[in-house]
């Protein structure tokens, strides 16, 4: 798996070098193969059910605007069934023997990337599961390495100078109010939330019975106020970061950075719904991991194309796709292959992301004869192309190597 992904990761490093700030977002998802369990699969649920599959923990590089630039680290494993039900022992084990080591492995991979990108500030971003003291200690060992931005987990009872973190931050004065748009989610309607923002430099106390030393970080606390009674889950974010935060503008930027963490959730949906990795019927996990490596790159490319079409709809498609790629996609959408030579007087097709009730891709000639690719169909098109012998060669050559130009350049 790592051999297949290495060229893509090397190309990811090339893409992020031209950016001053990169968000290295890491997250975990599970791949369910219960219906057709391959040899080597393990339990994927902490509850007492029989679901089996693989665990995937990946790290995606994003620009602060939300454009994905590629993967920096991928960890995939099957849990040992013999270890199931031993969660109660977690406090007795060193971090190296826990699944939580995945956060440190990702951070170390980002640290290696930071060494190769001296002019770029890499920030490792994690959700509440990443709120482990060992991760902050790891970051403290690399003063010139990546920064950290993690959402604190309230049930961890994080202490700062022997005081509860939430109580400490509630005592800080409100630095300002921030309006944020909260999108619709399921039955929850969209709304504009008003946040009180506080920030302060704090000293984290290590866990009890730990030999680690206290660490200084910055805390940013955003709490929603004035919300309607029907809002059952008001925003309450406590962020911990090693990036210096000395003003209200700095605090708002940290909140904006963390909001981009949602991009990796979109990426995981693309892997599962677009590439349908969980529908693969292979005999063993080694074969599945090799297939997953291909799908990870394909899913990134589809997601990347979506963001490019949103940000720069008039971009000529040959700036982000090879000629072979856009001709294959055009053929898939129209049912026939385009001519080898461009018509006289016509330019290369452009990407134009329009809204016609739902997001759509338009990849066609300016003004007329445009080939319209629905966004889901675009992902299906990449997968369908693999059924053609020539398309397999074209797509593997460009997509696995990941040598597409940077959309921000």
In short:
This protein has 409 residues and is an alpha+beta fold. Helices cover 32% and strands 25% of the residues.
- The overall number of domains is 3
CATH C-level category of the largest domain:
Alpha Beta
CATH level-two architecture of the largest domain? Alpha-Beta Complex
Low-confidence stretches: 353-397, 399-409
**Helix content percent band:** 25-40%
Main beta sheet: strand number and arrangement? 10 strands, mixed
Rg is 23 Å
Range of strand content: 15-25%
- Number of helices, where a helix is a run of at least 4 consecutive DSSP H or I residues: 10
SSE order, one letter for each helix or strand: HEEEEHEHEEEHEEEEHHHHEEEEHH
Categorize the overall geometry: globular
Counted beta strands? 16
Mean pLDDT: 82
Keywords, please?
409 residues, alpha+beta, Transposase Inhibitor Protein From Tn5, Chain A, domain 1, 3 domains, 10-stranded mixed sheet, 4-stranded antiparallel sheet, 10 helices, disordered C terminus
């Amino acid at each position: 798996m790592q051999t297949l992904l290495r060229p893509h990761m090397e190309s990811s490093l090339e893409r992020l070098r031209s950016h001053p700030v990169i968000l290295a977002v890491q997250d975990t998802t599970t791949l369910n193969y219960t219906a057709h369990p391959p040899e080597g699969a393990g339990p994927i649920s902490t509850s007492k059910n029989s679901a089996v599959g693989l665990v995937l923990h990946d790290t995606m590089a994003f620009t602060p605007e939300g454009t994905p630039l590629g993967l920096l680290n991928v960890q995939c494993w099957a849990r040992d069934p013999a270890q199931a039900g031993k969660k109660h022992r977690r406090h007795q084990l060193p971090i190296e023997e826990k699944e939580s080591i995945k956060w440190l492995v990702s951070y170390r991979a980002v640290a290696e990337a930071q060494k190769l990108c001296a002019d770029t500030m890499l920030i490792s971003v994690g959700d509440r599961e990443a709120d482990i003291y060992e991760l902050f200690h790891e970051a403290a060992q690399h003063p010139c390495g990546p920064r950290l931005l993690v959402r604190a987990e309230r049930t961890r009872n994080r202490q700062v100078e022997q005081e509860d973190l939430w109580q400490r931050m509630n005592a800080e004065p409100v630095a300002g109010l921030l309006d944020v748009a909260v999108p619709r989610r399921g039955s929850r309607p969209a709304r504009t939330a008003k946040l009180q923002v506080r920030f302060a430099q704090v000293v984290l106390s290590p866990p009890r019975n730990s030999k680690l030393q206290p660490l200084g970080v910055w805390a940013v606390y955003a709490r929603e106020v004035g919300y309607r009674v029907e809002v059952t889950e008001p925003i309450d974010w406590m962020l911990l970061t090693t990036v210096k935060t000395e003003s209200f503008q700095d605090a708002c930027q940290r909140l904006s950075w963390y909001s981009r963490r949602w991009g990796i959730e979109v990426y995981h949906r693309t892997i599962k719904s677009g590439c349908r990795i969980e529908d693969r019927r292979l005999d063993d996990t080694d074969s599945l991991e090799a297939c997953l490596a291909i799908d990870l790159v394909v899913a990134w490319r589809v997601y990347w194309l979506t963001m490019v079409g949103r940000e720069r709809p008039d971009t000529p498609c040959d700036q982000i796709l090879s000629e072979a790629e856009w001709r294959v996609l055009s053929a898939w959408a129209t049912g026939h292959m385009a001519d080898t030579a461009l018509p006289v007087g016509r330019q290369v097709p452009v990407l134009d992301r329009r809204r016609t009730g739902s997001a759509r891709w338009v990849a066609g000639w300016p003004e007329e004869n445009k080939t319209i690719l629905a966004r889901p169909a675009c992902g299906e098109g990449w997968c369908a192309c693999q059924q053609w012998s020539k398309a397999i060669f074209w797509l593997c050559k460009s997509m696995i190597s990941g040598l597409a130009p940077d959309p921000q350049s």
